[in-house]
Design brief:
With 242 residues, this protein is mostly helical. It has 2 domains: 2-168, no CATH class; 185-235. It is built from 13 helices and no strands. Helix 2 (21-37) packs parallel to helix 4, helix 3 packs antiparallel against helix 10 (146-162) and helix 6 (84-96) runs parallel beside helix 8 (113-125). It starts with a helix and ends in a 13-residue tail after the last helix. Its main location: membrane.
Length: 242
């Protein structure tokens, strides 16, 4: 009986994760194209996606690499972009903290925006789920998200390798960032954070190695957190009404 409930949770997770393919496939394909245009091989592009598996951080790192930024700056910038995952992890601890170490490690690897958002909503909706059922649901959501991310990355890399450099795909990277940022501006706090980070990044554009982007990012996070504290935003991925 317990085994059937765990499998049922997994299948429900797969079903709930399928709509995310509409986001995952285009962005992974675009990353593959842009990465090969930036000089990475197909294997390097795939390795990038497998190791990092975080779209925003991957695009950030790639942008800095194309501008010859030092590796340390690239790593710091990618980590700064992924700081939200630490908050996701803390939020999931009450639900999955009792898992064995190896399962927590697997969860940490597959913890991305989509797996977090879907899982938290499900856990809040079904408070009676066991730890095993919760993990099965999490892995169910990850199934149609993470492997297709790798496959679409390879498809994009192959396509990018076939596109001649003179085709001029430099515009793709900033457009990708705009497409990722736009849907995220859901509350006044998000919009304040975006505005402050943009203004600071432009004001400190003269700082070498694109460190102005990090200054802007940190300033935006501080402004967004302060806006949240003053009641101008809402907790991520929570229901607004009962």
């Amino acid at each position: 009986m317990a085994s059937s409930s765990v499998m049922s949770s997994y299948r429900r997770g797969v079903r709930d994760g399928l709509p995310f393919l509409l986001i995952v496939i285009p962005f992974a394909t675009l990353f593959g194209v842009v990465a090969t245009e930036a000089g990475l091989s197909v294997f390097e592009t795939l390795s990038f996606s497998v190791v990092v598996i975080a779209g925003a951080a991957q695009f950030t790192a790639l942008s800095l690499l194309t501008e010859q930024a030092p590796v340390l700056i690239v790593l710091i910038s990618a980590l700064a972009v992924n700081l939200r995952l630490a908050m996701y992890s803390a939020s999931l601890t009450p639900y999955l903290g009792a898992l064995p170490m190896w399962k927590r490690a697997v969860t940490a690897y597959f913890l991305v925006d989509q797996t977090y958002a879907g899982s938290v909503l499900e856990y809040e909706k079904r408070p009676g789920m066991s730890v095993a059922e919760r993990w099965a649901y999490f892995m169910g959501i990850a199934t149609p998200i993470c492997p297709p991310w790798y496959a679409a990355t390879v498809a994009g890399a192959w396509a990018g390798a076939a596109i001649p450099p003179e085709a001029g795909l430099d515009f793709a990277l900033p457009i990708a960032f705009l497409a990722m940022i736009g849907p995220a501006l859901r509350t006044p706090a998000h919009r304040i954070a975006a505005l402050v980070s943009t203004v600071l990044a432009l004001a400190f554009a003269f700082v070498p190695y694109n460190l102005g982007l990090i200054i802007g990012g940190l300033g935006g996070m501080i402004a967004g957190a302060e806006a949240e504290r003053r009641g101008l935003g809402f907790p991520l991925f929570t229901e607004r009404s009962k």
